[in-house]
Amino acid sequence: MDNTCISPDERSEKFLRKLKDRNIDVQACYQCGRCSSGCPVGDFFDINVMEAVRLAAYGQEEKLLNSHTIWLCAACETCATRCPNEIEIAGLMDVLRELALRRGIAPAEPRIPLFHQAMLGSIRSWGRAWEIGMIGNYKIRSGDLMGDMRLGLSMFMKGKLKLLPHSIKAKSEVKEIFAGKGKEYDR
Amino acid sequence: MKLSYYPGCSLEGTALDYDRSVRDVCRALDIDLLEIPDWNCCGASSAHMTDHEIGMRLPIRNLLLAAEIGCDILVPCAACYQRLKAADKALRTDPGFWDVARFSGDFQIVHISSFLARPEILAAIEARVIRNLADLPIACYYGCLSLRNPRVTDAPRWEMPTTLESIVAAIGARPVAWSHRTECCSGSLTMARPDISEKLVGDIVRAAKRAGATAMVTDCPMCQANVESRQPAVEGVGDMPVFFVTELIEAAMSGTYPSKQQRAHLVPPGVLTGIFSASTMKKEGPA
């Protein structure tokens, strides 16, 4: 993490309120470091887990939304499971990713949200995830056309990738879910 | 016994053989599976990681469908299990927030290995074994999502689970003691950051080897696909097959390991094929 000072002027009250609404009590952190030490992807982070929790407690939304950390978190829940104060740290990462997307902040790891969006696009269209469609969509949008070509081919040859999607009957219900009821977010 | 069944999307695709073996094992144990009609994707990691509302409403729809049937729901996929549990907790806490008038389902959401490790089911499996797994040294690999977060999953022993060990011991394999049973393989990042998955999968497979295992067994379709598929890119690993727990049970109870099932693996499952092609059929109870 860089050593630039943080200032109360950068404190986002709205972000802190959001965490409170979701019962993510970042103020309870006493920096013991169990979250960081157990994190399986921590080696790749620019802001380590306990730093992210402390920055969140200071309301430092911008620093967090621009980090690699929020995208590289694999949602394995090791941090939240081991936190002695039961802080929902993986939930904090969920909130940060969603805020970054809603605010249109260019992600530090662009391929990762493209993958999630390809997955959600598939669910929105069919009600279920259709792997070939999702992978194709991700490949085109990310430009990663050649990666895992051999793996994909070998999975296909083993009958592990279905050529055609299975569409559920109640597609309108899924469309409604994706339309959102607007309950949760005011931005 | 009747259970609702939620296969989830992986079991219609990359883990099609997992679905087949779950259904076969349940049939052999006289358990009726009622597939939840017109179920939808649970949203997996991608939904809850980027959109809380969609991440909750997708599994909620499945729970409301399951509530009409009323039976406990059997879930083979660890990710689906965690998402259904999260939705279940949210609905029980505040159904109104999710526009559900009343949610009084008294059914449980049950992950496959917790179910199969119940004493009465385990005894039924053991009684039907016609060929045991010849002391195969095997690393039981749980991964993340059937265990964590325990406030969501209600897993009783999230750091030291024992369900897979009990099951493989009942069919005559030998679970090894090892370090990475509940470590993450980074399945949710595997397409976008294969380099991270290669590191994590390398660590996991090396740890299994260090403990003397020649195979791994799991109950998570993402772990199975990720740990097998990322091995070729990692030096020093590449020969560690990852079996589904029901695949092993089916083999032990039927006494055969069909070539169709062998071909489903990206890492050749030679260790298991070897046991089943041995010339003498042995019927031995587990020690």
Features:
heterodimer; A: 187 residues; mainly alpha; Fumarate Reductase Iron-sulfur Protein, Chain B, domain 2; 2 domains; 11 helices; globular; B: 287 residues; alpha/beta; Glutathione S-transferase Yfyf (Class Pi), Chain A, domain 2; Rossmann fold; four-stranded parallel beta sheet
Protein described:
The complex is a heterodimer of chains A (187) and B (287). With 187 residues, chain A is an all-alpha fold. Helix content of chain A is 52%, strand content 0%. In chain A, helix 8 packs antiparallel against helix 9 (131-142) and helix 8 (111-126) crosses helix 11. The longest helix of chain A has 16 residues, at 111-126. The mean pLDDT of chain B is 95. Chain B is an alpha/beta fold and 287 residues long. Chain B has two domains: 2-113, Glutathione S-transferase Yfyf (Class Pi), Chain A, domain 2, CATH 1.20.1050; 130-277, 3-Layer(aba) Sandwich (Rossmann fold). At the A-B interface, helix 6, helix 7, helix 8, helix 9 and helix 10 of A face helix 2, helix 3 and helix 9 of B.
How do the strands and helices of this protein lay out in sequence?
The complex is a heterodimer of chains A (187) and B (287).
Chain A: H1 13-21, H2 34-38, H3 49-57, H4 61-65, H5 69-72, H6 78-82, H7 89-102, H8 111-126, H9 131-142, H10 149-157, H11 171-179
Helix pairs in contact in A: 8-9, 8-11
Chain B: E1 2-5, H1 16-28, E2 32-35, H2 44-50, H3 52-69, E3 73-75, H4 78-93, E4 109-111, H5 112-116, H6 119-128, E5 137-141, H7 150-153, H8 163-170, E6 174-175, H9 194-210, E7 215-218, H10 221-229, E8 242-244, H11 245-254, H12 259-263, H13 270-277
Parallel strand pairs in B: 1-2, 1-3, 3-4, 5-6, 5-7, 7-8
Helix pairs in contact in B: 1-11, 2-3, 3-4
